[in-house]
UniProtKB/TrEMBL annotation:
One of its GO terms (molecular function) is DNA binding. Residues 8-63 form the HTH cro/C1-type domain. Coiled coil: none annotated. This is Peptidase S24.
């Protein structure tokens, strides 16, 4: 698999998608663009490699230039803590910041090896998750589904923000209102993906189970 597009095809088939069109539909990608990326007619960027890698459960470095192992090596029964989630100085917007740390945590009950976690920093999520808590979600980047409406979920906007918000219906199809636990509601956001929260571990227990890198 010397070529980038060949690795993309392998990642897609091993994820269980028989065709490029099926994968594009599942993740909300443009079919023609994805097909061109996979057949080698249009080489994709590293930024796009990160998106594809997250969807197919492989490492972006492997997908982009064959660097290292194909899949993340968290270890049996462990998943990665991928960042911190908190609030900006005004206490308005909840956000997640990516980290390169090697922190790990056990897979939560009902979770899978595709799960990841973020650790809460600060008190902007009081009532849902206190400072130091772990929030788990499945790292599968699918568009929002109707069963997510009214629930607090993890989302990524088209402006590259990863947020923990209550998902509400927007004013038109394809738009969503994002209700904060503290601060005003963001109206009519466009989302790349949304994921249910699968577990929240309180701070005391989180401190005991996190394996620091």
């Amino acid at each position: 698999m010397d070529e980038r597009f060949q690795r993309l095809r392998v990642a897609r088939t091993e994820k269980g998608f028989d065709t490029a069109a099926a994968a594009a539909e599942a993740f909300g990608w443009n079919r023609n663009t994805y097909a061109s990326n996979e057949n080698g007619n249009a080489p994709f960027s590293y930024r796009k490699a990160k998106e594809y890698a997250a969807a197919f459960g492989v490492r972006p470095e492997w997908l982009y230039d064959a660097s290292g192992a194909m899949r993340p090596g968290a270890g049996p029964g462990l998943v990665k803590v991928i960042g911190m989630v908190g609030a900006n100085p005004e206490g308005v917007i909840l956000y997640a910041t990516g980290q390169e740390a090697d922190d790990l945590a056990p897979i939560p009950p009902g979770g899978t090896e595709n799960a990841v976690a973020v650790q809460v920093s600060g008190h902007s999520m009081r009532g849902l998750a206190d400072d130091g808590a772990l929030i788990y979600f499945e790292n599968q980047h699918f568009p929002p589904t109707p069963d997510m409406l009214g629930h607090v979920v993890v989302v990524e906007t088209d402006t590259d923000e990863v947020l923990v918000k209550r998902l509400l219906r927007g004013s038109e199809p394809g738009r969503f209102d994002l209700e904060s636990l503290a601060g005003p509601t963001r109206h009519d956001a466009r989302l790349r993906w949304a994921a249910h929260i699968t577990a929240i571990i309180p701070p005391y227990q989180a401190r005991r189970i996190i394996i620091r890198g």
